[in-house]
Amino acid sequence: MKHIISPLDLSVDELSNLLDLAADIEKNPDKYKEACKGKKIATLFYEPSTRTRLSFEAAMLNLGGSVLGFSSAASSSASKGESVADTIRVVSCYADICAMRHPKEGAPLVASEHSGIPIINAGDGGHQHPTQTLTDLMTIRSLKGRLENLTIGLCGDLKFGRTVHSLINALSRYSNIKFVLISPNELRLPSYICEEVLDEKHIEYEEVSKLEDAIPKLDILYMTRVQKERFFNEEDYIRLKDSYILDSEKLANAKEDMYILHPLPRVNEISVEIDNDSRAAYFKQVQYGVYVRMALILTLLDIHVD
Ligand code: NCD
């Protein structure tokens, strides 16, 4: 039984097969509409979510399966003091696969150690978010036709942004990837990721604080929200929240084929005036998120469709 706790739980080959499957699902959705008939996914969300939970549920429904779960810790027995380990033992009796989001780093890993069904980490604190990364990779591969030879700008809250951490881990396995890390000093990428991933793998990167300076050289600009819920004091959040606002003036200096991604939700960091620019890919990205989650469910349940 396989769990997806980190994006590195899939090898580069497995990832490539998964993205091929997701692309086939995009082209031939009808072929897959009964593939998970009789199967159930449990979505256990101890933290707020719109896209991730609903896209897992939409993915399972598109495959002919059903869904059960909860969308806040307050409506689950966690509020009575039940441990994640006990909850997952119980949920293993009700469902075939589980997507879990939790504010504590490592909670889905703990769940996987006590689970009778595959666990997918749907975001654990400021740590990892592997299925957002699958979504991002599918978006990049579909729009640019490759995952190699790219200069990727990651902008915003690189400290607490789990989508950024997972994406760096995943992309660091492809050749000739360069990162431009754009953040205020206080929200720089954690040093353990610089050292254990970027330095370790000899990946070229630079840390800058001005988006304007970085934009012209980028193939992908990955914008992120400042993660309000992970701040210890509100003053710091208020001071940093509008550090970057991408608007048409800044975008004027970007390459014609530089795509803009964002895991969403957006707060202020992308002006709505660029939503209709052909380079704005963040809503397309949401659609890809359903296809990759369908592909992931099929892969983890070992279901093959001819
Ligand atoms: C992200 C998350 O939850 O980490 N959202 C998502 O799943 N698409 C990004 C965020 O909340 O800023």
Descriptive overview:
The protein has helices at residues 12-27, 51-62, 84-91, 107-113, 130-144, 162-171, 191-199, 211-214, 234-240, 248-251, 282-300, and strands at residues 40-45, 66-70, 97-102, 119-124, 150-155, 177-182, 204-208, 220-223, 259-261. By secondary structure, it is of the alpha/beta class. The strands form 2 sheets. It has a 5-stranded parallel sheet. Strand 6 (177-182), helix 7 (191-199) and strand 7 form a beta-alpha-beta unit. Helix 3 (84-91) crosses helix 4. 45% of the residues are buried. The mean pLDDT is 97. Bound molecules: N-carbamoyl-L-aspartate (NCD).
* Euclidean distance between termini CA atoms: 22 Å
- Identify the strand order in the major beta sheet: 7-6-5-8-9
Integer average pLDDT: 97
Main sheet specs: 5 strands, parallel
Run of helices and strands: HEHEHEHEHEHEHEHEHHEH
Bound molecules: N-carbamoyl-L-aspartate
Q: Tell me the number of strands.
A: 9
Helix content, binned percent: 25-40%
Shape descriptor reads globular
Q: How would you classify the helix and strand content by structural class? A: alpha/beta
Radius of gyration: 19 Å
Low-confidence residue ranges: none
Strand content: 15-25%
Tell me the number of helical segments per DSSP (H or I, 4 or more residues long): 11
List keywords for this structure.
single chain; 306 residues; alpha/beta; four-stranded parallel beta sheet; binds N-carbamoyl-L-aspartate
